[in-house]
Amino acid sequence: MTSKTMRFLAFLGLLLPVFRAGAVELKWDLGDKKALTFKAVTREVDLKQDPDAKFPIRETLEALKDPTSALGAQMIEKWKTRIKALEMPKDADALAVVRARSDRHREALLIRPNAGMPGAASEAGLFDKLIEKKTGIVDLRLLLGADGTNKSFYLDAPARSWAAFAFELPARAVRAGDTWELNAHLVQLAGNFKVSAQGRVSRVELLDLKKQDGGEFAEIAYLHGEFVEGVAPQPFGAPQKQVFAAAIFGRGEFHVTQGRWKELIGRMQIGDGSDEDVRQNHIALEYFPDVPEQLMDLER
């Protein structure tokens, strides 16, 4: 076998992970569009109306120390079931935009109504006001690399994690059953915080690839949790014990053929690890193409 043939075979070996049977690339694709636009829901969840929506973070992290164990597998199936039951919330309160840049990158924006806009104080009709007035405030902006990853390192932890769930896509080709991590870091600690216990699980799974309505769709499940316990020194008095627990969970249906979300439904949860001090916010996107160009062109 000649050295040229060996080099060629080695090159093919590098390509094999990309061209695996059934693997697809999940990439934003604007085609001839100026931007991809989505109704977005970001408001707080009323947990009094939906108490079962609370994410049992410590229990989940403990079970998923070994995802291949019987307990781990049981927890994964439990959360797949709960995630599939999530429904798209009503009354969008913001607009999400993915638009092209002059380079190969993409830019993602979250646009909210102006504070002084008539009707902006009411939850109902916020999205309609944005469309009607053709203006708003850019609340979040991030740079997406050509591989779908977030390149905006200046965002704080909650904003970066929100953006990771809403806009990041896997950098490699994936097929049904493949898993990868969500680039999220919800818990931010002060430099003098002394950690005594911590845990983290981050699991994104391509559940299924299905063909319908002339296109191919990827069903994706998200399960990300973080827990940190420790002591924070105080300027006066004894050090204070603190616990931080946070999670992102949800599901999405990505239109592989058209390179965009059909819908993405999830929650972001922040708390202290107890069942009482818990807050959740929706993270939901629904494709909505009928948006005025003025909103696609907004700058800060």
State the main characteristics.
alpha+beta, single chain, globular, 10 strands
Task: Describe what you observe in this structure.
With 300 residues, the chain is of the alpha+beta class. The chain has one domain (24-296). The chain has helices at residues 3-15, 57-63, 70-84, 126-133, 157-167, 293-296, and strands at 35-41, 94-100, 106-112, 137-144, 179-180, 194-212, 215-232, 240-255, 260-271, 278-287. A hairpin with a 2-residue loop joins strand 6 (194-212) and strand 7. It is globular. Residues 8-20 and 116-122 have low confidence and may be disordered.
Q: Whole-number average pLDDT?
A: 84
Q: Helix tally?
A: 6
Number of strands: 10
Structural class: alpha+beta
How many whole angstroms does the radius of gyration measure?
A: 21 Å
- Describe the sheet with the most strands: 10 strands, antiparallel
- Sequence of strands across the biggest β-sheet: 4-3-2-1-10-9-8-7-6-5
Strand content: 35-45%
